Amino acid sequence: MQVILGTKIGMTQIISADGVVTPVTILQAGPATVTQIKTVETDGYNAVQLGYGQGKNLSKSVSGHLKKAGENINPKTLKEFRLENAPEVKLGDVITVESFNLGDKVAVTGTSKGKGFAGTVKRWNFNESRNTHGFKGNIRRVGSIGSMYPQKVWKGKKMPGRMGHDTVTVKNLVVAFIDKENNLLGLKGAVPGPNKGLITVEGKE
Predict the structure, then answer these.
(1) Residues of the chain above pLDDT 70, percent
(2) pTM above 0.90, yes or no
């Protein structure tokens, strides 16, 4: 089962024996604890819930839920992963980077950096208006957003608004580095989100 939770550390480079430089993103991947198992017979679908990190001040309902997986399990984050086949793990099992191999292709999901409220030039790459003699100087304003009919603004119109802080998934990233002792995972290329951000990694089995 190639699924794991982790946090983004940052980017670096790996130099192979033949001198090829590969940019990689290093993740602190796991260890993650199996806190719940769902099957088709009991829940209608196959899934596994993983707990990651060290939490505190958990509610009584969450604490009672985690007791089924064992004592002294106090994760900061709980995440469910749907599976095609029945999971081959049991409650309390620990998932580490050992389930991944060099060359595996994975899908990585994270939350992109939030940019705050942004105008159309920054958010949608609009052009600025002309800044010539006689112009009022509002070169970054939106301009016309509709016509006489249908007297409304269509949904999905590109306008100013909140930019970033979206769930982003990048597929087919290649595992280029594994450190089993320190639970580090290196993926070739860029991973969405800021450093220390929560990342989910799902492999293709």
Answers:
(1) 100
(2) no
